[in-house]
Structure formats: structure tokens, C-alpha cells
Write a structure and sequence with these properties.
60s Ribosomal Protein L30, Chain: A, five-stranded mixed beta sheet, alpha/beta, globular
């Protein structure tokens, strides 16, 4: 699991905003788990206040499928706001980053 520093929180917020507009982002824990198990996800981001049982389940499936997992330093409200959504986002999956550089937070451009 990769943790982000507070310095990079604003960077990931900007990249998320671009990814939501130009790429394919899946919102919700059930959709995230389903797509991680199918191997269709390039990155998973989970809010800091995501329920621990749900976080552990998502982390487990990410490890099984070698999908990068990022613990977002903000709450689900912050994650929803970063995605320009009027609702809480506990977890999301990036299928296609679009024009954003969101994959660099997972450890490289070619993840």
C-alpha cells in the first residue's frame, strides 16, 4: 500500500479531476472490487475513513491481482470533492487515466 504525503494531496486532487473528465473512473466499493477481481483496473484509491473491513477486502484483491493501491490521505468527502462529485467516495478504481498523470502516484507511468 502506498501512502501519499500531504504535499502530494493537491497533486492527486488535480490529477483525479482530469481523470474524471477525460478517462474512465469507477466509483463505489462493490464496482471497484468486481473490476479488480476481473483485472480491468489500473489503480485503486481508497479514502482514509473507508471502513476497515472494506479496505482490507479491497487491499486483498489488489494484492491478488497486482493492482496498485493508494490510501488517499483525505476523507471520503475530500475524495468526492477532488472528483467533482456531490457525494462521498470511499473508493474508486481507475480503468483509463485519460489525459491525467494519475498513474505516476502508483509508482510509474506504465503501470
Amino acid at each position: 500500500m502506498k501512502k501519499l504525503s500531504s504535499l502530494s494531496k493537491s497533486e492527486i486532487d488535480k490529477s483525479l479531476s482530469i481523470a474524471v473528465r477525460s478517462g474512465k473512473i469507477l466509483f463505489g466499493s462493490n464496482v471497484t472490487i468486481k473490476n479488480v477481481m476481473a483485472g480491468r483496473v489500473r489503480l485503486v484509491i481508497v479514502a482514509s475513513n473507508c471502513p476497515s473491513d472494506l479496505r482490507e477486502k479491497i487491499e486483498y484483491y489488489c494484492k491478488l491481482s497486482n493492482t496498485p493501491f493508494i490510501a488517499y490521505p483525505g476523507s471520503s468527502l475530500d475524495l468526492g470533492a477532488a472528483c467533482r462529485k456531490p457525494f462521498l467516495v470511499a473508493s474508486l478504481a481507475v480503468r483509463d487515466p485519460g489525459d491525467s498523470d494519475i498513474l505516476k502516484f502508483a509508482g510509474g507511468e506504465n503501470v
